[in-house]
Design a protein that fits this description.
Layout (H helix, E strand, L loop, with lengths): L1 H8 L7 H11 L3 H33 L4 H50 L2 H6 L2 H43 L1 H7 L3 H38 L1 H6 L3 H53 L5 H42 L21 E11 L2 E11 L4 E5 L6 H8 L7 E6 L2 E2 L5 H5 L2 E4 L8 E2 H6 L7 H11 L2 H4 L9 E2 L8 H14 L4 E5 L7 H14 L4 E5 L11 E6 L2 E6 L1 H7 L2 H18 L1
Parallel strand pairs: 3-10, 3-11, 6-9, 9-10
Antiparallel strand pairs: 1-2, 1-4, 4-5, 7-8, 11-12
């Protein structure tokens, strides 16, 4: 969690050219929208700035000369400019938002595609919340930059340029007087950016702590309530929340100082125009229309200046978010497919481990020189104490992780020479901790695979004994499943996971403590179904309950990452080794239960 805090506290450059070049690659497919947006920006920026000039013409040429016809023409031109500005603004907003949404869509698709390709090793070391934040919040920050930030910057810059063009075309000396406060504005803006940058870092830091604290304690609410820690946790939360509030207040303080100062400079500029320009009008060196136009241009000039200050924050947020997004996209924790993969045709299901060494962390081996062979159609059981390496064996068989030494063969082909998708198509796994997705019972069994018919879904459910309870649900197989299957019992979720595995009709079936979470009656039902299902399939069963694997064709005992014993149930009992001791412990437990 502390590492996550540090990452969220990191604030790179306000503008990073390297990051911006990478971001602009997403804009490239939508160049036509950029061209349209720039053209419309030039046009929409000119329309409001032409109005003061038209008013100047109206005053100097028509009002002073009492020319009603000319005044009518100027009024119509002003109305036309307003209507055109509204129309152009509509298309500008539409195309820029459309471009922004298309770019964000592409980034999100790329991110999700990348995340799906990452090896499980990445998810072992990365908090889920951080990855979700990258795909949601950070991408949404970029959306603000692409949809409004960049475009508004163009618009503001073009407005300022047009203002300068009209001002200098009317009076050079009054323009210089008007802009004499700009150097002060630049210095104030520099200080503002520096202070806001520091406060922005503090706000992000405290927000990250607040979010993480909320996520952790809501998830563990049962522990908080069991130990009656509500008051203590509230006190800690209030402290974190107070720090976040103070950081925001500090940030608001800079805005509260900067924007009134900009207003002061604007008023000062107006005062200088009236002082200098008024004097020029009195001396008949300047017309009243020009003076009036300059007053309007001055007011118009400071509006984009304030907007550009806001856009700085959008740019800074976008740079920070893009840095984290690209860090995720640059993560190459992959299980690479072979350049020329071999096909698994007519899979028989023979599995062989040859001197396999495996470690999650370099040098810390959890499997050491593991070797065994499973013939097609055999039921193969793996037993051992917690942490012995049982689950690691099935993880590397499905190639969720790559081994360091040795080889794993399926039908004589090294799994590293097989495309991962092709390999996993023939393997189905039922885990102890069942995960169900939001959707329906049916979608959780076929996982959206259109090749699996409704009849096959129902047949799979009937075989594992799930059809009985599913058919009693109000909507049957179309019953809605809440997040993680919250409305279903542990046993019901386990039965659905069995049906899911069987619906895909694999040649290799892996059961990892698959019956440990169900009651005795359900376990008997599943065991009866398994006896029928394992016919013609190679199966690997990991179990703590030794009674569930007594009929296995072969059993291996794994201890501290090594295969210590191999044989059938009776053969292993006769050896009176580790398996015998495990069996005796479970038998004694059963005797205690009987006595009780």
């Amino acid at each position: 969690m502390a590492e996550e805090f540090r990452e969220d506290e990191i604030l790179g450059k306000a503008y990073d050219a390297k990051l911006m070049r990478r971001l602009l690659k997403y804009v490239k497919p939508y160049r036509k929208y950029v061209v349209i947006a720039i053209f419309l920006n030039i046009f929409v920026a000119a329309l409001p700035t032409i109005r003061p000039y038209l008013i100047k013409v109206g005053i100097d040429n028509y009002i002073v000369n009492k020319d009603y016809h000319g005044l009518l023409i100027i009024s119509l031109l002003l109305l036309t400019a307003l209507i055109l500005q509204s129309i152009v603004q509509y298309f500008l907003t539409y195309y820029t938002e459309l471009m922004g949404q298309k770019i964000i869509f592409d980034i999100r698709v790329q991110l999700f595609t990348h995340v799906q390709k990452l090896a499980l090793k990445y998810f072992d070391k990365t908090p889920i919340g951080r990855t979700v934040t990258r795909v949601t919040n950070d991408v949404e920050t970029l959306n603000e930059m692409f949809s409004s930030g960049i475009v508004s910057v163009f618009s503001d810059v073009f407005v300022i340029i047009w203002i300068f063009v009209f001002m200098f075309s009317m009076s050079w000396d009054l323009s210089l007087v008007t802009l004499s406060v700009v150097p002060i504005l630049f210095y104030a803006t520099f200080l503002f950016r520096k202070k806001v940058r520091e406060s922005y870092r503090d706000v992000r830091k405290h927000l990250a702590r607040l979010n993480s604290y909320m996520q952790e304690h809501v998830t563990g609410m049962n522990v908080v309530q069991i130990f009656a820690k509500q008051k203590q946790e509230l006190k800690k939360f209030s402290g974190i929340n107070k720090d976040y509030k103070n950081a925001n207040i500090k940030s608001i303080l800079y805005y509260a100082v900067f924007f009134p100062f900009v207003e002061f400079l604007s008023a000062l500029s107006v005062a200088m125009i009236i002082w200098y320009g008024g004097g020029e009008v009195i001396q008949s060196k300047l017309t009243i229309g020009v003076l009036f136009a300059f007053l309007q241009y001055t007011e118009m000039f400071w509006r984009p200046v304030r907007d550009l200050s806001d856009k700085y924050n959008i740019l800074q947020s976008a740079m920070a978010s893009s840095e984290r997004i690209f860090k995720l996209l640059d993560d190459n924790t992959f299980i690479n497919d072979p350049v020329k993969p071999k096909k698994l045709e007519s899979v028989k299901g023979q599995i062989e481990f040859k001197n396999v060494w495996f470690a999650y962390n370099p040098g810390e081996y959890v499997l050491k020189n593991v070797s065994f062979k499973i013939n097609p159609g055999e039921t193969f059981a793996i037993v051992g104490a917690t942490g012995a390496g049982k689950t690691s064996i099935i993880n590397i068989l499905s190639r969720f992780y790559d081994i360091e030494k040795g080889s794993i063969l399926i039908d004589g082909i090294d799994i590293r020479d097989i495309d991962k998708k092709e390999l996993r198509k023939h393997i189905a796994t039922v885990l102890q901790d069942v995960y169900l997705f939001s959707g329906t019972i049916k979608s959780n069994i076929n996982l959206g695979n259109e090749e699996i018919t409704d009849e096959q879904v129902i047949e799979a459910a009937k075989i594992v004994g799930a059809h009985k309870f599913i058919s009693k649900l109000p909507n049957g197989y179309n019953e809605e499943v809440k997040e993680k299957g919250a409305t279903l019992s542990v046993g019901q979720k386990q039965l659905i996971s069995f049906a899911r595995a069987l619906a895909f009709n694999p040649k290799i079936l892996i059961l990892d403590e698959a019956t440990s979470s169900v009651d005795t009656e359900t376990e008997i039902l599943i065991q009866q179904a398994i006896e029928k299902l394992l016919v013609g399939r190679t199966s690997i069963v990991i179990a703590h309950r030794l009674s569930t694997i007594q009929n296995a064709d072969k059993i291996i005992v794994v201890h501290k990452g090594e295969v210590r014993e191999t044989g059938t149930h009776q053969e292993l009992l006769a050896q009176k080794g580790i398996y015998y001791k495990l069996y005796q412990l479970q038998y004694k437990d059963q005797e205690i239960v009987k006595i009780a």
